[in-house]
Amino acid sequence: MILRRGARWAAAPWVMAASLALGCFYNPTLQDKPGSTSAIDTTDAPSSDTEPSALTSSTTTSATTGTTTSTTTSSSAGSESESATEASSSSSSAGGPECDPNNPKDLACGDLYCVAGQCVGCTSLPAETPCAAVDALAPVCDAASDKCVECTPDDAQLCSGDTPACDPLTNKCVPCTEHAQCPDSACDILEGACFPDEPEAVVYVQGSNVDCQAKTGLSEDSAFCKLTDVPSELPKVTIRLISGTQAPGGLSIDEGKAVAIVKHKSLTPEINGANIIGPTLTVSNSRLYLSSVKLRFASISLVKCTAGRFYAHDTFWEGNNINNALAIDASSCDVSIHRARIARCGAGLKLSGGNLWIENSFILDSGAQGAQQPAFHFLNGAKALITYSTIARNRLINGVSTFACNGDMHEVLVRNSAVVGVAEFVDSECGQGLTFQHSVMYEAVDEDDVNNVMTEWFNAPVEDVYTPKNGPLEDKAMWEEGDPRFDFFMQPIATDKPTFAGARQPL
């Protein structure tokens, strides 16, 4: 449905087509192994340990100035049935016990446990016979289900190695997908295992120029002064970055290495590239993880990735809207962005080949005088999946404000998102390679029109986070298997009914 300003919420004469019948899939763990061909699968909804395959689409996109477009795709919702095993009663005619008191796992109790001849849940197990004594492979009592399970998020003693995290939905040990699941180091999301946590593999950095040569980096009291002070001999290293008054400089990741830069303590640390000639962070045939870090200013780009992998969680890019620096410049690179804010960069994201995944993120106010590309620039067969994101207020660059495309066939799917841009917000060269699903788009006449729509759709922003009002974005998104289960602030997204399009669900 298209809504036209002046004919309030009335149907307009054209429709931005979105005839996808796709089971869209976002693989947050990107667990394809090095050397495999990674792309985006929208044909099925496999589990997160399935390698993504090529995204295909034949949907074309057109736009008319001053209109709002809401895209939906019908789907049949299958009902899930839950089976519960009832404890069978084997009482004797004389009123004997339900089960064998000497066998806590008596089959007569089904999913329950035998205690003193009665079938009970795990919360009723006696202290001398806890879950660990009943089943060594299910040593934790889950109060919610009243069953002994392999783990819970609060008790994951069995979870280690390649499965260090506990899935709260299944109570099974699984590969990690968030750095918080590896509190002593960081999560190597590609492999699903935690980074090494030996002292020499976890170092501290705090921007400074005082007594730098004497610092070992092995504790926060002796933090390295610069990112470049971190030894590069280890194949994997976690850098705990501490907020400070001095910039810690940039970093180039050596080939074949894996580095995680994560926030240490409560204050968000900043990597400032204003005085760095070249990219602030460089990834080449290696991989870099960022978590809860602010990237600010740059001369060329804040992140440059070539034939590597780059992951960002809870990260804030901020430019000055003066120079043309890119937020991300990627070539044949896999880029995965979660719960990010990318704002006021001279140019947004350029992707030549490779794959891009974005979820629960804000891409705002890109574009500076003299910039050569808009918020997104896809080239040479690039593939992207953007879900539950808010893309708005990006400036007109070379006639396009939001999505530009060049080169070989690219495949870009935007779903469950809110997009507001000045006409044209989609480059005609994107053609059938760019499709929208369960999203709301408004192509504005000018920046004043953009501002008016933003006021109608959202509450006043707080630190570049736009929370939706009831109205145009409501009930436009539809969760599917593989979509994020939480929004920008880690609030649950309903999985059984339509939700709000965009990065943030309402308060």
TrEMBL record:
Keyword Transcription regulation among record annotations: no
Low complexity: compositionally biased ranges: 56-95
Disordered: region residues: 35-99
Residues passing through the membrane, by range: none
Keyword Signal: yes
First and last residue of the signal peptide: 1-17
PROSITE patterns: PROKAR_LIPOPROTEIN
InterPro entries per the UniProt record, alphabetical: Pectin_lyase_fold/virulence
Biased composition (Polar residues): 35-55
Positions in coiled-coil regions: none
Protein keywords: Signal
Protein name: Right handed beta helix domain-containing protein
